[in-house]
UniProtKB/TrEMBL annotation:
<keyword id="KW-0411">Iron-sulfur</keyword>
<dbReference type="InterPro" id="IPR042264">
    <property type="entry name" value="DPH1/DPH2_2"/>
</dbReference>
<dbReference type="GO" id="GO:0046872">
    <property type="term" value="F:metal ion binding"/>
</dbReference>
<keyword id="KW-0004">4Fe-4S</keyword>
<dbReference type="InterPro" id="IPR035435">
    <property type="entry name" value="DPH1/DPH2_euk_archaea"/>
</dbReference>
<protein>
    <recommendedName>
        <fullName>2-(3-amino-3-carboxypropyl)histidine synthase</fullName>
        <ecNumber>2.5.1.108</ecNumber>
    </recommendedName>
</protein>
<dbReference type="GO" id="GO:0051539">
    <property type="term" value="F:4 iron, 4 sulfur cluster binding"/>
</dbReference>
<comment type="similarity">
    <text>Belongs to the DPH1/DPH2 family.</text>
</comment>
<keyword id="KW-0479">Metal-binding</keyword>
<dbReference type="InterPro" id="IPR016435">
    <property type="entry name" value="DPH1/DPH2"/>
</dbReference>
<comment type="function">
    <text>Catalyzes the first step of diphthamide biosynthesis, i.e. the transfer of the 3-amino-3-carboxypropyl group from S-adenosyl-L-methionine (SAM) to the C2 position of the imidazole ring of the target histidine residue in translation elongation factor 2 (EF-2).</text>
</comment>
<comment type="pathway">
    <text>Protein modification; peptidyl-diphthamide biosynthesis.</text>
</comment>
<keyword id="KW-0808">Transferase</keyword>
<dbReference type="GO" id="GO:0017183">
    <property type="term" value="P:protein histidyl modification to diphthamide"/>
</dbReference>
<dbReference type="InterPro" id="IPR022428">
    <property type="entry name" value="Dph2_arc"/>
</dbReference>
<dbReference type="InterPro" id="IPR042265">
    <property type="entry name" value="DPH1/DPH2_3"/>
</dbReference>
<keyword id="KW-0949">S-adenosyl-L-methionine</keyword>
Amino acid sequence: MKINEFDIPYDIDIEKILEEITNRNAKKVLIQLPDGLKPYASKILEYLSLKDVLIVFSTDPCYGSCYIADYIGKEYNFDLLIHIGHDKFVEKEEIPTVYITANYLGSIEELAEKATKFLYERGFKKIGLVTNYQHLKNIEAFSRIINSHGLEVIIDEKSKGLVLGCKIDGALRISEKVDVVLYLGGGDFHALGIAMAIDKPLFIADPYRNEIRDIEKLKKRVIAQRWWAIHNAKNVKNFGIVLVSRRGQFNEKIALDLKYKLEEKGKKVTLLISDNVNWDEISSFTYIDVFIVTGCPRISIDNRDNFKKPILNIEEAYELIKVLKN
């Protein structure tokens, strides 16, 4: 069954979903979608067209496959979890889980031409190209267009150019071989993670806005916020170390190590646990001066403006400990 791109701009394997539901005789199915696909939930239901199967969509955040909703599925007796948009990350799920890719169906030719002109005018010759799951099938065609104009595109062989918010090995491996890194995809989430880790210019080729944009200003602002948070944290007394209960993000060993090291420096530490870290959930711990989130490192980077007290991720917490030692 072919998805009509005017209904849903992603190629979702509806036939595989139907096959998995049928073969497993699933009568109660939980579907988890990233935010960009949630507006198309009703269309997905139409394509599935199942009368004797109860289908429920999770409203929880779905930043990646480290954020799967299998624990909800287990607690409420779902037969099957369909996780759309990401690949497998956790070792073992709590209930039978099927991962379905969602490949972008839109055209990338005009964007590739625009990217080529943009890069050529700025004197870049060797281009490192990376992308996310939704555009992985577009990356070869995109690179061919840029190559055809005399520029050299380099894609990491091991990762095939794929990067995640917390896994950017593919970008790191090619960063020293290129003049610039180009991220094919929407939003700033993945691109910012790369920009924070490499010392090369990085631009976003955004197929949704059909534009090429710079991320340098955002990178500088985030770095300034990071050091502001570390600077403010060094002089306070009470720390809250937040464990994230999602299995793909649960880092108890690291949390305990940070607790021990901070207490060595005379700090008081309270251990907390949360399923979805946000200011409303933790603000009631009014005596805590600084929060350290030991789950996804991007929680602190992307949400600092939403927290009224300093918030650090694991890497930043260890930087703080170095500062305290000095």
